[in-house]
Design a protein that fits this description.
homodimer; 162 residues; mainly alpha; 8 helices; 2 strands; elongated; DNA-binding
DNA sequence: ATATAATGTTAGACAAAACTAACATTTATA
DNA sequence: TATAAATGTTAGTTTTGTCTAACATTATAT
């Protein structure tokens, strides 16, 4: 039995997330691919895998393929979900380009609290699955991003007495 | 002449930000206070100040008070502004409590890109300085946060043909 | 089947940023 | 003003996570 309560470092979370992503592609996960996806050299990967193996988050034998334990999977997926939520906010609400959105999500995913992430998720649920009112509102936002000022037409609608 | 293009580490940004905040209180800035505000021991502060002094971002002589150079001020204020923007989003849009909002902002401020931050700023400008339409929209969001579902009354309004 | 390429590991160096313990200086106080 | 308390520094250790160089293993291809 082991205690997993000790928080993982950002770096270790990155490794787990990368393995989740690579695993989802169906092919066996190799050190080199992790190295590429994370932009670190291979010895760094070997060393990280050793640690994660000792923490029972990763299964990896010398020269072998890499896979996740149940707990590793759980954490990796969680991190990846944080990533997707943040990226979704950045691209769909803030209209940040893919590049920046991904890079930012990749760093913020390690530091946002559970509390804030839950709220962000709700926020996205609310805004993006809306019958109609918010579509209107989002249109206004798009316009504001594009032209730096409010769309008069939409504005009038808003101001008008109901 | 010196090149400041080399990115500062998160830690060094934290020190500059802390000094900005302490400076704004009017009293001379001491090592101990920086130590308290950042939750590190005093030798860590001394050592950080030494580095920042060498990079011409901080003025600090042995046993003396701490102050910022122009460049240090510039960077420190920038970081602090990022912090405030993020906190504002977390508290005013996501309704995250002060504690979490501050902690999260404190970490995210170092990793969010300029691009995303600018968009976030615009977003807040748009949403929070709105004549009326968005106030309505925000009310809906508040309700959704509170009760986990949409307010029927507000919803009807949204759906109704205009 | 063997040489070569690709892949993976080991060992050891290094940097950042924290820490503790011990010492130095400054400030406050009796 | 002498001494205690508060404040600050130095030296040295530790942790984490990189890296390079050299070596080991596995896969590929003639």
């Amino acid at each position: 039995m082991q205690y997993f309560s000790n928080k993982l470092t950002q770096s270790m979370e990155d490794y787990l997330e990368a393995i989740v992503i690579l695993t989802s592609k169906g092919k066996p996960v190799k050190v080199t691919e992790i190295s590429n996806i994370l932009g670190v050299k291979k010895p760094s990967v070997t060393s990280a895998l050793k640690k994660l193996n000792e923490s029972n988050l990763v299964k990896h034998e010398k020269y072998g393929d890499v896979s996740l334990t149940e707990e590793g999977k759980r954490i990796g997926h969680e991190v990846y979900k944080r990533h997707r939520t943040l990226r979704r906010f950045l691209t769909e609400i803030l209209k940040v380009d893919q590049e920046h959105a991904d890079a930012d999500a990749c760093r913020m995913e390690h530091v946002i609290s559970k509390t804030s992430l839950e709220k962000l998720t709700k926020f996205l649920d609310f805004v993006l699955n809306c019958p109609r009112g918010n579509a209107e509102w989002l249109k206004g936002l798009d316009y504001y991003f594009k032209y730096g000022k409010r769309n008069k037409k939409l504005l009038e609608k808003c101001n008008r007495k109901e």
